[in-house]
Structures are given as C-alpha cells and as structure tokens.
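Pipeline run #58 for the internal structure catalog. This entry was flagged by the ingest filter as a single-chain record with no existing model, so it goes straight to prediction. Upstream metadata was stripped on purpose; only the residue string is passed forward. Reviewer on rotation: M.T. Logging verbosity set to normal.
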Amino acid sequence: MAEKLSEENVQSRLVRQPGWEADANNSIARSFSFTDHIAAVGFVVRVAMVAEVLNHHPDVHLVYNRVDITLSTHDAGGVTEKDLELAERISGMVGLG
C-alpha cells in the first residue's frame, strides 16, 4: 500500500506542478479548459489510458469543455507518490509538465 504524504511534502511538491492545488479532502485537484467538448473528451480518454497503465484512477468531472480532476489514494487516506506522478503525467499531456 502507498504511504500518505505529509501536507508539507505535498505543498512543496505542488510548486513544481502548475495549477494543481491541495484541497481540504486530502487530495489534489486541477481544472483544465479546452476549446470544445470533443477536445475535453479526448483529454479524458488520454488520462484514462495513462491511469490504467499506472493502475491509479482519478476522479474526473467533465462539463462541456472543462475537465476537473481530483487525485487521492483512497486506501492511504490522502495524497501519495502515485497521485503526484499521475498529476505530472496529466500536466505533461497539455504541455504543462
């Protein structure tokens, strides 16, 4: 099982992940905006493929051209290395990593 990171560790690591923020629910989250719905859906599909390879699946909320992603390792009760790795890969998909 992955080990939950301290709040300080998460905050210091998020400095290198533009747009990602820690929230009150022991998770990290970020919103992405796209030109239209199809671009947003395509992004969600790419995220799903990476998540499957990593065997670590985000919470995804899609509304027209906006995608909200929340990452947390539920069995660890918070943010772990798995979440930070997935956040970095997701950011890389849109040229932010």
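catalog note: The helical segments are 7-14, 37-54, 81-93.
catalog note: Strands lie at 21-23, 27-33, 59-63, 66-71.
status: ready for reviewer M.T.
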